[in-house]
From TrEMBL, chains A, B, C, D, E, F:
Isomerase found in the keyword field: yes
PANTHER family: 2-HYDROXYMUCONATE TAUTOMERASE (PTHR35530:SF1), TAUTOMERASE-RELATED (PTHR35530)
Superkingdom of the source species: Bacteria
UniProt family annotation: Belongs to the 4-oxalocrotonate tautomerase family.
Organism: Rhizobium mesosinicum
Organism lineage string: Bacteria, Pseudomonadati, Pseudomonadota, Alphaproteobacteria, Hyphomicrobiales
Protein name, as recorded: Tautomerase
EC number: 5.3.2.-
Keyword entries, A-Z: Isomerase
Broad enzyme group: isomerase
NCBIfam families in alphabetical order: PRK00745.1, taut
Domain 4-oxalocrotonate tautomerase-like: 19-77
């Protein structure tokens, strides 16, 4: 297959919606869990929001328990 | 059923991970599409990240095509 | 008092930490509630993080109940 | 006290507002400073926004001085 | 020109870095100002970060002066 | 030059718009690339959005390829 051309990307990204999903959670999940999450969450978006799978980006940020609080207490103190 | 007590929430939220998912997309989806997305994305998270469904929050922000750019062009100009 | 000079701002902002606080909540609070929140949250940051009050920025984003979900359900459906 | 039941959390989270506060600052604060910040910022929110303490989540992200710029200069160069 | 094929986008997005730039500012800029900003900011990213222009997304969120505070005061009160 | 006074900063920050730019990208850029990016992106904002350079803050968050997905696949698997 020939290398994709840049103007192809440009054309397509102009036409379609490109949702961005940002997940914030504690560290500790394995790569396999992240792999499964992005696969299944992308399916969920494709089926419900009518966007092609290629258009969805997912970013994961991990925040440790000593930087996440509920009810005025750090999770690491709870 | 008796009203849930606050210390119940406090106790549980201390123990469990509470991932937050933030979706950014163009406006135009119906309430039914959002309803389906949060249901299916929550399932995806529960199955892959091992968190109880009650622990997951999803926030949706809609960004119009004249405030979203790809390749140096506003989507509304593309 | 003379007008502040730009190089003053530039000098100071180089030296100090400038925390940013982003609040996401449902709409419905009055301006007075927001006014009180930014005043008290700034005090909290100044007292605990050792930053001058002028250095702290607070941004508030309001997200409606039909764009916020917990447990797989939109708040507006709960 | 009996273990809290999941439907309790589900019920309560449906009814109440659950503001999220995201703090971005340079690294360098101690755990005690973070601990004090989340306690005092939660008080500030509870008193001014009329939400129960259990409903407020605070996330802290630390961004180093070589990844934060003001006036076109990285803080680490200032 | 034939319609771009989906696998083209998929291939390319796998290979390249796709930075996301999020701008938060007060409302009031014209569409022409936004148009110029996304054009020039994309050039800046392409020249300095070595990414193709098509790979950069820019999102703009407008936050009113009564939802943005500095020094404990809403901008609308200053 | 005398040390800038705090009320100077307070005065100025009340009057001017203070846009915040948040860049998310993969790690791997050198400090020089970041330095050049914040310089050029600030110029772009100053020229197009009519804000003084001192007013613009830029934050950079680096997200590894195993925490960023497109099309349902982690970049590290692509």
């Amino acid at each position: 297959m020939p290398a994709p051309r840049r103007r192809d990307i440009a054309n397509v990204t102009k036409e379609i919606d490109m949702p961005i999903l940002h997940l914030q959670m504690h560290p500790g999940r394995t790569d396999d869990q992240k792999r499964a999450f992005v696969r299944e969450a992308t399916k969920a978006a494709v089926e419900t929001l009518a966007c092609p799978p290629e258009s969805l980006e997912i970013l994961i940020t991990e925040i440790t328990r000593d930087s996440w609080a509920v009810g005025g207490k750090l999770k690491s103190d709870a």
